[in-house]
Write a structure and sequence with these properties.
Catalyzes two sequential steps in the biosynthesis of coenzyme A. In the first step cysteine is conjugated to 4'-phosphopantothenate to form 4-phosphopantothenoylcysteine. In the second step the latter compound is decarboxylated to form 4'-phosphopantotheine. It comes from Clostridium homopropionicum DSM 5847. This is Coenzyme A biosynthesis bifunctional protein CoaBC. InterPro entries: CoaB-like_sf (IPR035929), CoaBC (IPR005252), DNA/pantothenate-metab_flavo_C (IPR007085), Flavin_trans-like (IPR036551), Flavoprotein (IPR003382). The protein is of the alpha/beta class. The protein has two domains: about 170 residues, Flavin prenyltransferase-like (Rossmann fold); about 210 residues, Rossmann fold (3-Layer(aba) Sandwich). The strands form five sheets. An eight-stranded mixed beta sheet has the order 12-11-8-13-16-17-18-19, sandwiched between helices. A five-stranded parallel beta sheet has the order 2-1-3-4-5, sandwiched between helices. The chain has a two-stranded antiparallel sheet with strand order 6-7. A hairpin with a 2-residue loop joins strand 9 and strand 10. Helix 1 packs parallel to helix 3. The protein is elongated. The chain starts with 5 loop residues before the first strand and ends with a helix. Bound molecules: cytidine-5'-triphosphate (CTP).
Length: about 400
Amino acid sequence: MSDKKTIVVGVTGGIAVYKALDVISKLKKAGLEVHVIMTEHATKFVSPLSFQSLSQNMVVVDMFAEPKAWEIQHISLAKKADLMLIVPATVNVLGKVANGIADDMLTTTIMATKAPVVFAPAANTNMFLNPIVQDNIRKLKVFGYKFIEPEEGRLACGDTGSGKLADTTLISEIVLSMVYDIKDLKGKKVLVTAGPTIAPVDPVRFITNRSSGKMGYAIAEEARDRGAEVTLISGPCNINKPFGMKVINIKENHEMLKAVKENFESSDIVIKAAAVADYKPKNYSNKKIKKVNEDLVIQFEKDTDILRTIGEMKKNQILVGFAAESDDLIANAKSKLERKNLDYIVANDITCNDTGFACDENKVNILCRDGRNISISKMSKRMIARELFNIINEKR
Ligand code: CTP
């Protein structure tokens, strides 16, 4: 498995402190080691215990607390960090760092680290736009500090304008793409399908499945961070649009088929994580089906197997499928690998409650065309995606 990266998260005192919890949770799920330093003011908004529970590490606040180890903490965390993220960053911390002030654990660690430091500011609009603050930001940028710019919106104080902390998913994604510096997919085109498709019954009803799209999105994001040019074809999912890739939204099997066919030839790697509806109603009713009979019988007919279709078209592409199975996991997955002319198949047992469909974690076996069966223990979908590309790139 790839080396664990360490993020030191600095939390400063603003109303957006609670959102830092969400960022930390996302970084942990992505498999990163997280240490938290809070300012005294931040602890007035949210207790260090919440940060300790989520980061699974002691939270550091006081510079002069009894040491718990023979390390000078601001130096040891400064050295440990692969990246420092200050979220939320108040105008106070920006002002201090821009002017070389180091008077607490967080600012001393920022001064001492050689790792990249990223600020995600959040403040009242007038404070944020104050020329002194803007001048500090300019100065920090000149020194190489990075910023995840705040959004415009309605702020906690009731004002509307810029100063709203950037979206927490965007913050965690940017951090991940900065620390995860393997660019082994640079120059490659990766096509990913994700989520369910729907099969309409009448103008108001459709059938679909439980796929959340989380696995496919994690794969697309991992490919992007490794330098690939990514096209994501997504069924209806409740996930924010990821940055840095082309996203094609579709609903039905035939729309996914069309989008996949259009993008297949130019792709180097194609990963079909979508849960495509196998059947559609034989007769779509243009009118809403009324509640007249006791029983309702809908006849279904087979729809296109998209993966099999592109398996037949395959030239030099690496083709990866998924197999969602409730029994005979390996045997069924092997048979799909052969039938659909795949190079790899990711097999997951959908009967487990805490992995697979709609969960944040997964536990899979990756079967290779050369006969290898690699068992991946339970881990975040992002880490599964990382392992998959490591295998495709023969990194393990
Ligand atoms: N797949 C596809 N088109 C379909 C059905 C499945 O492209 N109509 C793809 C999925 O994206 C997945 C793989 O085929 O990568 C296997 O999907 P799965 O639902 O596990 O298998 P099926 O082929 O549908 O077979 P079964 O439902 O009988 O297990």
